[in-house]
Amino acid sequence: MYRKERSVPLKSSSSALYNNLSVLPLRDKQLTYFAAVHGSTVSLASASADGLSVSHRQLQAKEGGLAVSASIVTQASWCVLPSRVLLVLTSQKGIQMYESDGSIMVYWHALDVLEPPPAQAVFARGIAAASGRFICVGTSSGLVLVFDIPSKGTNITLSEVLEEHRDSITDITSEVGENPDGAAELVTADDSGALCVWRAKEEFSLLTKISAFGWSCSSVKLWNGVIAAGYGNGQIRLYEAMSGALRATVSAHARWIYALDLAPLTGKLLSGAEDSYVQIWKLSRSPDTGDIEIEHCHSECVTDTQLCGARFCDPEGNSFAATGYDLSEIVRYGQV
Amino acid sequence: MSARTLPLLFLNLGGEMLYILDQRLRAQSIPGEKARKDEWTDVDRKRVMNDIITTMFNKKFMEELFKPQELYSKKALRTVYDRLAHASIMRLNQASMDKLYDLMTMAFKYQVLLCPRPKDILLVTFNHLDAIKDFIRDSPNILNQVDETFRQLIDMYSCLSAGEFQLIRQTLLIFFQDMHIRVSIFLKDKVQNSNGRFVLPISGPVPWGTEVPGLIRMFNCNGDEVKRVEFTNGGNYISPQREGSFDLYGDRVLKLGTNMYSVSRPVETHMSGASKSLASHTKENAAPNPLAKEELNFLARLMGGLEIKKPNGSEPGFRLNLFTTDEEEEYAALTRPEELSYKVINIQATQDQQQNEELARIMGEFEVTDQPRQSTSKGDDLLAMMDEL
């Protein structure tokens, strides 16, 4: 059972964008960082454990030097690598990487500008750290850009471009659980609902592709070789990462799912959708049959709010946070 | 973000504008024989509706509208509606125009938010167009223009995927972000809370294509279903009945976008209580001027297609009041919170001479029958005209 805790206020309300909440728990400092996107701004809030002490920072997505028009940010997410943590922003103009507290920008990658403007929207979206040394970012044309991140400094380079998707990338995730050699490392999802599963060595190679079934996939997570994907028709699907086989379907929500998150130490899954609900689930694998199981644990309704972001605040899944469209706060819940 | 958003935004806001104007004109109209020279009649109402609809669906204007482009600010869009509302013999004061725009935007925000599927925004648009066609059912020429636009919409949007529609919806929601103006008809119907936020129901039919939540199905590695578990998701949902029609004619099923006003349900807005979420609104108004240049380009292209009929010199302009009395309108103008005023784009005439000459030429074709202004150049005329909007 979870009970509502003190909300964290934001300097601006959250926009209706997929996966629009990122959380970085800093255990040693007893602080939690939150990030939510509003238009061309990212609101950062740093809260103490009891939620009483909050400090704010706002980042603007302006590219260095030239432009005057701010571009819309599509996502902001912390990428945790063994040696450093970077805050990555994706927007209509490109990709920005900052130090984890948002204080200094360390890298900027511009998307190609096309003249005349095409009918297709141009933007970057989908962010994940992978294999302890890469940050992968998706684009509206279906490309996945792989950036090589040094353990410190600004010498970040684009090392690979993965071309497998034909529709806009919606979300990217990497394995958060145990990872035997040769196993799936990265999953990329797109607007049509297709998923690509990748293995990573020096380069990424395609392991398997899961075809779309008619609905957009807005959020995806990978844990112990199990893919959890959230779709526009409110359904969650579980797949075997190595083979791509469908293992479970859950009619979880009455509206479009906007966020999924996984607590790696317990296998808890959360889903947040436009229907105002956060649902908590438990994933497991039967030791005898090897079958993947999922059970429903808890429902939480954030009244009159279309949720756009939801995350666990700790790796056991004892607490979670969510935000919604037009909401100027992050609602938090903790286990009793 | 999505470059296909503007036609939907413009047509739906335009549709709401027509619903409101129609309701106010009916409320203020006097039977023909009894009307004095400065009072509305039914004939006048039909004429105003015809004039505005003809202007809205003008071929050149629609061509500009349908070009792939980013959405512009609320300020820029408001300028186009100001022009549109004055496309006939009707005149609106600033306060009434502000109220009209508030109502239009809150109504469409509500419709976008509550659409069961993102694709249903198209059904909402079709609802507006169906109603517009009913307004001008006696005029075959204008009817043809509207049908032409209808077909353009079907061509452009029918084949878009659900993901692309969601992008359009997300773009619209960014446009409407932080707007919480309270509308009395919404408050009465309990679709809006007293804090200005809309009520989101957790019951009723699920969208077409979505299953009622509550079922988990698990499969083994061969794909056979091995387990089925039910759970309670918290809401109270049922299956949907049928899907709305996306054809030129048909039952849309969805009620969003149909006319919710009538003579007995007048429209009011409350300005107080909307002050909480103004932080970003004030930021938009304080945005640096350089944005104005792109917006000027947009306006020049769009206005170029708006062929406004010049009212006959001898006819007086009829003033429509969106409030119940003149005193109320004056009071509203004086007490409108600074943060909620739709400040017009600040044009710096010295910056781009060629740009402004082009705009001045186009604007010069729209004669507003007010007192003649003392001015020395076309540029000054233009500035004065824009300032008066």
UniProtKB/TrEMBL annotation, chain A:
GO biological process entries: cilium assembly
Source superkingdom: Eukaryota
Pfam families with a match to the protein in the record: WDR54
Keywords: Repeat, WD repeat
Entry-linked InterPro entries: WD40/YVTN_repeat-like_dom_sf, WD40_repeat_dom_sf, WD40_rpt, WDR54_beta_prop, WDR55/POC1
A cellular-component GO term for this protein: ciliary basal body
WD repeat-containing protein 54 beta-propeller domain ranges (all copies): 1-335
WD repeat positions: 250-284
Statement: the UniProt record of this protein carries the keyword Glycoprotein: no
Protein name, entry field: WD repeat-containing protein 54 beta-propeller domain-containing protein
Native source organism of the sequence: Mauremys mutica (yellowpond turtle)
Species lineage: Eukaryota, Metazoa, Chordata, Craniata, Vertebrata
Automatic annotation (TrEMBL), chain B:
Transmembrane feature ranges: none
Lineage, broadest ranks: Eukaryota, Metazoa, Chordata, Craniata, Vertebrata
Protein name as annotated: Organic solute carrier partner 1
Protein's organism: Mauremys mutica (yellowpond turtle)
Region feature (Disordered): 369-389
Record-linked InterPro entries: OSCP1
Coiled coil: none
A Gene Ontology cellular-component term: plasma membrane
